[in-house]
Amino acid sequence: MNTKYILLCKAVYFSFFPQSSYSDKTHLFSHAIFIIFAAKFTYMSVTQELAVNFNDTKLAYRYKTTSELKQAEWMFRFLNTPVIGALGKSGLKLAIQLGLPVKAAIKATLYKQFVGGETLEGCLPIAEKLAKFNVMSILDYSEEGKHSEADFEHAFNELYSNVKFSATHDTTIFAVFKPTAFISSAIMEKISEGKALNSSEEASWEKAKTRFDLLCKTAFEHNYRIMIDAEEYYTQEAIDELTYSMMAKYNKEDIHVINTYQMYRHDRLDALKKAFDRAKSNGYKLGAKLVRGAYMEKERARAIAMNYPDPINATKEQTDNNYDDAVRFCMENLDNLMVFIGTHNEKSSRLGAEYLVQQGLPRNHRNVWFSQLYGMSDNISFNLAAAGFNVVKYVPYGPVRSVTPYLIRRADENSSVAGQAIREIKMLKEEIIRRNKEA
Ligand SMILES: Cc1cc2nc3c(=O)[nH]c(=O)nc-3n(C[C@H](O)[C@H](O)[C@H](O)COP(=O)(O)OP(=O)(O)OC[C@H]3O[C@@H](n4cnc5c(N)ncnc54)[C@H](O)[C@@H]3O)c2cc1C
Questions:
Q1: For residues 297-316, average pLDDT
Q2: In terms of domains, do 345 and 432 share one?
Q3: Is the minimum distance from the CB of 342 to ligand 1 under 6 angstroms?
Q4: What distance in Å separates the CA atoms of residue 140 and residue 11, rounded to the nearest whole number?
Q5: Do 225 and 172 lie in a common domain?
Q6: Which of 285-299, 301-315, 329-343, 405-419 shows the lowest per-residue confidence on average (mean pLDDT)?
Q7: pLDDT tens, position by position, 161-205
Q8: Ligand 1 pocket, 351 CB below 6 A?
Q9: 131 with 183, same domain?
Q10: I need a surface site. Which of 60, 110, 242, 346 has the fewest CB within 10 A?
Q11: Could you tell me the sign of the dihedral formed by the alpha carbons of 360, 331, 317, 425, in that order?
C-alpha cells in the first residue's frame, strides 16, 4: 500500500484527536472508523492514481486513421470467421508453396496489419509514428524456416546490422534475435539432450557461439540491450546456457543481455528463480523477458509423438498463475533484474503496472518494460504509455515471402487464442463509432 496516503490520514487524525484522549472509548471507536476510511481512501487513491484504462480507445488508436481502423477491423473479422480464416490460412500456405503471385494480396492485408516493412530503414516511419506517443520499437527480423549455412550467414549479417542500426536510433530501444535464425535446431537439440556432436557439428556450433557472442558484444559496446527469443522446448537448454554465459560476460554492471522464459512450461518459474540465484552468486544481473509461449500445439503433439512428458501446463489457468507469479517475483527483485512483460493479457499487464504504483516506484522504472506485438493490443500499449509506463512494440520486418510463417502464426493466434480477435474487433468498432459521432 502507498505509505504516503497512510501518513497523510494519520496526520489528519492526530490533529483532530490527540493521543492524550485515547482513554476515552468513544475516541478509540472513532479512531477505528477513521482507520477504515483511511484504508479505503488509500485504496481508492492508489487505483485512481494508477489511471490505466485499457478501454480508452481514443488513446489506443491515436496513431491510426479511420480508414486504417476499418481495414484492421475487417482483417480481424476475417481471421475470426472459422471457415474463412482456416481456408484463408491453408490457401496462403499452398499459394506460397506453389509460388503463386499472392504477394500483393498479402501485403495489403496481413502484412500491413502485423509487419513494419521489408527492411530496417523501411520500418523507421512506423517506429517514428509510434514514438510520438511514447511507444518505442524493437525491429524484429522475422525470416523463418531457413536451414543452409548460406541462409545462416545471411541471417547473421542482417542481425548484426540490426543491432548496430537499432542501437543508433532513438526510437528503437532493444535488439532481438531468434537463435534458430543462424544456429541449426538439430545441433541445439543434441546439446540440450546432452548428446555428443560429430566434428562437423562441433565446427558449426563453435561458429554459432562466436556469432551469438558478437551480437551480444555489439549490444554491450553500444551500451544497448539485446533479447534472445525462446523457441521450441527441445532447443532451449542450449540457448539458456549460451545466454547465461553472455550475461556473465556483459551483465556485470548493467543489463545488456536478456533471456526469455515461456511460462506455459511447468518448469520455467523454477528456472527463472534458479537463473536469478545463479546470476547473484556469480556477480551479474539477470534480464528476463516473460512470455506465455507460442508453440503449445506443436509442443504437445511432439511430446505425444515422441513419448515424453508434455512440457506444457495442463491448463491455461496454470499458465496464467505461473506468468503472474513470475511477474511478482521479478518486480520484487528489480535491484538485480530487468523484467520485460511481453503479453497481450490485460490482467498480467495491469499486475506489473500496479506493482510499480503501489510500491511508490517510478512508472518508467528503467528495469520494467511492457511489450506487445505490432498490430495487436494497441489498447494495452498506448494506454500504458499514456499513463507514463515504459512500452515497446515488437515490429517484425522482412520480405513478404520470408515473413509468411510469422504471419500464419499471428493468423493462428488470432483465430485460436480465446477472445483475442473478438477483443480487437470490439475495440476497433467502438473507436470507429466514437469517431463517427465526433465528426
Ligand atoms: C512482445 C512479445 C514477445 C514475444 N516473444 C516470444 C518468444 O520469444 N517466444 C515465444 O514462444 N512466444 C513469444 N511471444 C508470444 C507469446 O508467447 C504468446 O504466444 C502470446 O503473446 C499470447 O499470450 P498472451 O500472454 O499474450 O495472452 P493470453 O491470451 O492470456 O494467453 C494465451 C497463451 O496462453 C497459453 N495457453 C493457452 N491455452 C492454454 C492451455 N490450455 N494450457 C496451457 N497454456 C495455455 C499459450 O501460451 C497461449 O499462447 C511474444 C509475445 C509478445 C507480446
A1: 96
A2: no
A3: yes
A4: 52
A5: yes
A6: 405-419
A7: 999 999 999 999 999 999 999 999 999 999 999 999 999 999 999
A8: no
A9: yes
A10: 346
A11: positive
Say how many CA atoms lie within 13 Å of 90 toward its Cβ. Answer: 5
How large a percentage of the chain has pLDDT more than 90?
72
First-to-last CA distance in the chain? 43
Collect all residues with Cβ–Cβ distance below 8 Å to 274 and sequence separation of at least 6.
Answer: none
Measure 417 CA to ligand 1 centroid, in angstroms: 9
pLDDT value at residue 2 = 47
| Residue 380 grid cell | 494495452
- Taking residue 37's Cβ as centre, other Cβ atoms within 10 Å add up to 12
Q: Are residues 226 and 349 in the same domain?
A: yes
Cell of 5: 496516503
Do residues 146 and 79 share a domain? no
- Give the residue whose CA is nearest to atom 25 of ligand 1: 343
**pTM for this structure?**
0.89
Domain of residue 30 covers: 3-50
Non-local CB neighbours of 124 within 8 Å, separated by 6+ positions: 169, 171
pLDDT value of position 1: 43
Total of domains in the chain: 3
Residues 261 and 318 in one domain: yes
Residue range 264-285: mean pLDDT, rounded: 98
Following CA atoms 417, 420, 421, 422 in sequence, which dihedral angle do they give, to the nearest 10 degrees? 120
Domain final residue, candidates 50, 66, 85: 50
Tell whether ligand 1 has an atom less than 6 A from the beta carbon of residue 292. yes
Confidence of residue 36 (pLDDT cuts 50, 70, 90): low
Alpha-carbon distance of 373 to 100, in angstroms, equals 28
In the reported structure, the alpha carbon of residue 233 is separated from the centroid of ligand 1 by a whole-number distance in angstroms of 14
Ligand 1 atom closest to the CA of 418, numbered from 1: 29
CA of 292 to the centre of ligand 1 (A): 4
pLDDT computed for residue 87 by the predictor: 63
> Strands 257-262 and 226-228: what pairing?
parallel
Inform me whether the pLDDT recorded for 44 exceeds 90.
no
**Is the Cα torsion angle 274, 277, 280, 283 positive or negative in sign?**
negative
Whole-number pLDDT of residue 261: 98
Q: Which residues pair with 438 in a beta bridge?
A: none
Whether 259 is in the pocket of ligand 1, judged by its Cβ within 6 Å, is no
222 and 287 share a domain?
Answer: yes
Instruction: Tell me, yes or no, whether 170 and 244 share the same domain.
Output: yes
140 lines ligand 1 (CB under 6 A): no
- Closest-CA residue to 179 (of 209, 136, 150, 204): 209
Domain CATH for 273: 3.20.20.220
